[in-house]
């Protein structure tokens, strides 16, 4: 069964270009030029990944991203204007997993889509086309105090309260839990999640996701219960 990709962009040339390249990879594409059309689709159609433009004629991409995150955890990739750093941070804060800067190279877009789907299906066996479970999930539960993660079920609880995490947030927290007591550098986190994508010290993608994780966990950066910042090095969770 092919993955279902939602594409929302009011620039018809860009939306059509994305559709062509995705279909060439045998993805099923649901293409819309307005956010409201996309919302109508989401209500009735199971989606595996969404590509959202920020500037839409009715509802902006940020609001659409937020609405999707109210009920769904599949990956979201935002399309942002060139060098719009604020847009990137806002999108990540609202629950997006990645962003693509316009103008973009179609093959890079395809690579990012594949990367997000691969991670989502790896940590969400129910969404995998093969139904196979990663060998990394042989130990189902990761526990640190009141924080419990079940890798196989893709669930995370803080005490009795479920944490609704995006695929990227889940991946970051899993890596930190798997390395409890040890510092994981921002660079290592980035490469483990995005693998062959480019990292630089000015990249604040991990920082934004960590901040969002802390907000969901009710954690404080000054007096953290879980995720601690080791300045100039990275992050760690202590047992």
Give a description of the structure.
39% of the residues lie in helices and 20% in strands. The chain has eight helices and twelve strands. The longest helix has 18 residues, at 106-123. The protein is globular, with a radius of gyration of 18 Å. The protein is α/β, with parallel strands linked by helices and 239 residues long. Helix 4 packs parallel to helix 8. It has helices at residues 12-24, 35-44, 61-69, 85-93, 106-123, 167-178, 186-194, 205-217, and strands at 4-8, 28-32, 49-53, 76-80, 98-101, 141-144, 147-150, 155-158, 161-162, 184-185, 227-230, 234-237. The termini are far apart. 34% of the residues are buried. Helix 3 (61-69) links the parallel strand 3 (49-53) and strand 4. It has a five-stranded parallel beta sheet, sandwiched between helices. It has a four-stranded antiparallel beta sheet with strand order 6-7-8-9, covered by helices on one side. Strands 10-12-11 form a three-stranded antiparallel beta sheet.
